[in-house]
Amino acid sequence: MQEVIGVEYVFVVRARMSDRAASAFPELVAEYSRARGTTSLFGTIVDQSQLRSIMARLDTMAFEIIEVRQLPSVAPGTTGRPRI
Questions:
Q1: 9 contacts 82 by C-beta, under 8 angstroms
Q2: pLDDT band per the 50, 70, 90 thresholds, residue 23
Q3: pLDDT confidence of residue 73
Q4: Burial (CB count <10 Å: 0-12, 13-18, 19+), residue 13
Q5: H or E stretch including 8?
Q6: Residue 76 pLDDT more than 60?
């Protein structure tokens, strides 16, 4: 079986996402920024279908998406999350 290698993405919404809302995105990790009033969702996306699914869920839940960004590749054993 071939290993699936994905690409790291961050999705930023203008809101404080509740734990319940964040649970709709089990493939992502949510981090709230009080200073910016945004929630950033980080995770590995394996294909365009998964990317579209996340965007559709955010839209269905009426979150204002203010940024979607592909993160640069990082060395194994390090974190790819930027400070947002």
A1: no
A2: very high
A3: 74
A4: buried
A5: strand 7-13
A6: no
